[in-house]
Amino acid sequence: MDQVFIFDTTLRDGEQVPGCKLNTKEKLELALKLEALGVDIIEAGFPVSSPGDFKSVEEISKIMTRAVVCGLSRAVQKDIEVAGEALRHARRSRIHTGIGTSDFHIRSKFNSTRDEILQRAVQAVTWARNYTDDVEFYAEDAGRTDNEYLARVCEAVIKAGATVLNIPDTTGYCLPQQYGDKMSYLINHVPNIDKAILSCHCHNDLGLATANSIAGAIAGARQIECTINGLGERAGNTSLEEVVMVLKQHRQLGLYTNIQTQMLNPISREVADTMRVPVQPNKAIVGGNAFSHSSGIHQDGFLKDSLTYEIINPDEVGADGSRIVLTARSGRSALAHRFQKLGYSFNRNDIDVLYESFLQVADRKKEVEEEDLHQLAKAYRPEPVIA
Ligand code: KIV
Ligand code: ZN
Question: In a designed cystine with 174, which of 98, 179, 214, 287 is the match (CB 3.0 to 4.6 A)?
């Protein structure tokens, strides 16, 4: 089995979500939880961006005992100096520097040429190496960068001392096959690729961030950059909980992570509360409905054998447990199950009769709750038998 390093960027790319800005205390608390979760690298912030973020990176550097602490910078000397300074207390530090490599960036953003950008990339890595041996280079918009040029940039920055190559699909443009092929291309065309780790950094503009990151890992990338709840610029980043559980579920891929999966739901709630961004109910792994069963067909199968409709045990990801939700689409077995859980012992005939009154309530309400069931039982039998 090969390890895939988990690079968490909740405190940097995740924090770029409008309204999600965190103060130093909030960042420190989350950093401790992320380290306990088992992430390998924590991108703590963008030190040059504000004095507050500098302080956050500096303070996080002091308290991390195992995780590598990473600070972002542009390919600008001042940024790199400030990142180096913010990280000086870290037991293990990484500078994440880079520049846009697609023609969109080279022409429109920098009004420059491919050769000049390549030189700036090399220069940035050389500066960063003055502060740490662990330098990650990002080729921004690599998803839309010509592969041949991208390979030239990768070769040059590895020569300059980059130890990790981040291949961001910054705009979330790639298809999984394309993104995986890009990784394979680099593995086959960058002569010194064995001296660096390839990293996936995928955005979710087309809802493909998780699929693309997994395709990248299958092709040979050994680091995935992700955030709790998939937070991040625009439609977000790759969701940490999703990639971790995909690799865990599909053991045949031969890839594992260090993540303590039973902490996934608690940390998801913590991040949602601190950043004030609720998790959508149908979100995989951590959404409120991720382990809820509401239609009769599913409920019947689930009650006979949970594996029929659940591929993950809720305990494995720290969820509260599976829920049988009663709605107008529910069937008799779910109703019987819920009555039984409340202590009522009704036989099949009782349930047949109760089911008719249940449907009347269910058609009026979105969800039939415990109190409704007590009332139905009372109306059916004024003095219900409690088992
Ligand atoms: O999406 C992106 O390209 C980034 C880089 C700064 C790594 O977030
Ligand atoms: Zn990003």
Answer: 179
pLDDT in tens, 18-48: 999 999 999 999 999 999 999 999 999 999 9
- For 224-271, what is each residue's pLDDT tens digit? 999 999 999 999 999 999 999 999 999 999 999 999 999 999 999 999
Q: Find the ligand nearest to 100 CA.
A: 1
- Ligand 1 contacts (CB < 6 A) are 13, 138, 140, 166, 168, 170, 201, 203
CA angle, 27 as apex, 134 and 213 as ends, to 5°? 55
Cβ atoms of 75 and 120 closer than 8 Å = yes
The confidence score (pLDDT) of residue 67 equals 98
Which of 240, 259, 278 is a domain's end point? 259
CATH number at 168 reads 3.20.20.70
The per-residue DSSP string of 180-229 comes to HHHHHHHHHH-TTGGGSEEEEEEB-TTS-HHHHHHHHHHHT--EEEEBGG
Counting the structural domains of the chain, the total is 2
Task: Let me know whether 232 and 336 are in one domain.
Answer: no
Is 268 a member of any domain? no
Task: Report if residue 108 sits inside a domain.
Answer: yes
| Domain final residue pick, 259, 276, 304 | 259
Give the burial class of 95: count Cβ atoms within 10 A of its Cβ; 0-12 exposed, 13-18 middle, 19 or more buried. buried
Substitution candidate for ligand 1 out of 16, 138, 238 with most atoms within 8 A of CB: 138
Distance 236 CA to ligand 1 centre (A): 11
Do 91 and 8 fall into the same domain?
Answer: yes
- d(CA 165, CA 157) in angstroms, rounded, equals 9
**Domain-embedded: residue 284:** no
Residue nearest atom 2 in ligand 1 by C-alpha distance? 170
Residue 273 covered by a domain: no
What's the pLDDT at 381? 78
91 to 67, 88, 134, 191: CA distances (angstroms):
9, 8, 12, 31
Ligand (nearest to CA of 173): 1
Q: Which atom of ligand 1 is nearest to the CA of 140?
A: 3
For residue 93, how far is its CA from the centre of ligand 1 (angstroms)? 19
Structural domain of 118: 2-259
Give the whole-number percent of the chain exceeding pLDDT 90: 98
Band (326; pLDDT cuts 50, 70, 90):
very high
Q: Are residues 53 and 187 in the same domain?
A: yes
